[in-house]
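2024-03-11 09:14:02 INFO queue: dequeued item SAM-dependent methyltransferase, len=231
2024-03-11 09:14:02 INFO validating residues
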Amino acid sequence: MNAQKLSQRLETVASFVPSGAVVADIGSDHAYLPCYLVHQGVASRAIAGEVVKGPFESAERQVRTEGLANKITVRLADGLAAVQPSDYVDTVTIAGMGGPLIVSILEKHPESLQTVTRLILQPNIHAKVIREWAMRNSWALTDEVILEEDGKIYEVLVLQRGPMTLTEQEMLFGKFLPMRKSDVFIKKWQREYDNWQRVYAAIENAEPTEENVQKKQELTTYMTWAEELLR
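2024-03-11 09:14:37 INFO prediction written
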């Protein structure tokens, strides 16, 4: 992977960036995504934000090597603190971390989202918490993609400003993904279903505490939903 050829995961994220966007890529690592978007003429300008010094320096080097220092600003900052009002960022990408961490980044500096109209989020795990956050904060899902790369399954969530109501099932499985039922989607939830069965069996043999009873009820609900989906 480099600034000209992204991984399938990042290419999917890039495919949802609107033409002419001003992009902030948070947790940018080597700044491959911002460099790619500017090279392709998709992004007009970009911010590459990194909280760790090593990746920040790698991103700076990459931007210089690509000759894009006039279009891409690399900042050492905690999450969305990398975005300044004068940037007029309209699109934020956050990829390659867990759902709870992505949500914590979004919640820590909400003022940085004032000019933002699109979020493209790629959680490695726990996409459910992002959907819950979106519903609470008036962001609406416009698309979702599930893909497998190098043996790992990823989801990409695309959000625009606006109200959204999701059922409990949609928060867990997605709004659009269950309609498409791709092979990767089936594979993910078959794997989850098998894991839930193992956990349920372990709890069955454990002490019947209140916590265990509640967990069994939750697992029973999830397994019932999954059985309907996988049918």
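2024-03-11 09:14:37 INFO annotate: Residues 151 and 225 are 25 Å apart (CA to CA).
2024-03-11 09:14:38 INFO item closed
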